[in-house]
Amino acid sequence: MSQPKDNIFVGLDIGTTKICTVVARENMENTLDIIGLGSSRSLGIRKGVVVNIDSTVASINEAIAMAERMSGVAIKSVCAGISGGHIESFNSRGVVAVKNGEVGKQDIARVLESASAVNIPVGYDVLDVIPQQFTLDGQSEIKDPMGMSGVRLEVDVHIVTGAITSATNITKSCSKAGIGVEHIYLEQIASSEAVLTDDEREIGVCLIDGGGGTTDMAVFNKGEVCHTAALQIGGNNFTRDLTAGLATSEIEAEKLKLISGCVMMDIVDPSETISVPSVGGRPPRSVSKAVISQILQMRCEEIFELFLGELQKKKLLKTLGAGIVITGGMANFEGIEELATKIFGINVRIGKPLNIAGLVDQVEDPIYSTAVGLAKLHSKYGHSKNMISQGSEEGVFGNIYGKMRDWLKEFF
To answer: Are 179 and 150 within 8 A, CB to CB?
Structure first.
């Protein structure tokens, strides 16, 4: 038996290298206490897209089960993330006449629908419509026009589209795992919810979220997203570069990347060496750490320079008063801030989940930014169907409290 709890929210990050589940509870201060975390190796995803549903379901089940054991929650609904090369986004504008001279819910719905009436390629669908600003009778920069008097209502939106099959396969994989998906969010939008401050969004900031299969970007200005982009280059490419450059196995290359990953040769001691296992029964070799750093730096420079070109093309670089925020697995590379500062020429910081409580030490790593952000979005816009299991009403401490109640019953 279980009892419903409306304030339990779950983010499910279905990534290329890992699937991560974050369980959060809304507290009295309307912030989130992280009460559960589950992570598993992602076996059915390539570059953010489901390529094997059965393997994906197995990985989801493992991550969900781990999070349920830690939190004492029976997970039934989540907000999930989506990324990949199929994602396209653009800005659009809608206009309607206000009925009755006062903006109501129907007017807002109609103007958003008007902005969403755009030509989309066959096989694609609108994944999200993100309002940027409303304009009422020529007055712009309105966040919420509800109840205002006017005649002409306009809205600027950021539209995210993606392959129908990709979103469907994410939902289908979750459904087979016994989980309902309330909404699918673009992963960099989810990560921004976890790591950016309101001031940064207002002044202008670019978020770079480096995952295993893709590296995603989102640009914010005046509090709202104004541009998104994605590269089909991620952590797996760094690993393959080391595999080829050092003539070692992919497993060993991944270990080297995580343990000795530095993307700035200038800060590496040229005399420092690392033992690199060989293949085919050959003895391990001693390789300068500078060589490893050079390989990683070249790939990282490629990613940053591609994003720099995108920002320059869209004339957005000068709008980034708050600079660049890097999150995801890429953020854990040594020297990443220095290299990004050198290439972009503006301030750079590492983005970790902010304004959370509970299991902070376990989720403050940038690799959990997307999952934490999805849980936050679930709490803001979702309707939780998740439940605290009986005897686990306080998460991991529920069993202790349950026993204390039993002892008290024996004496009174």
So the answer is: no
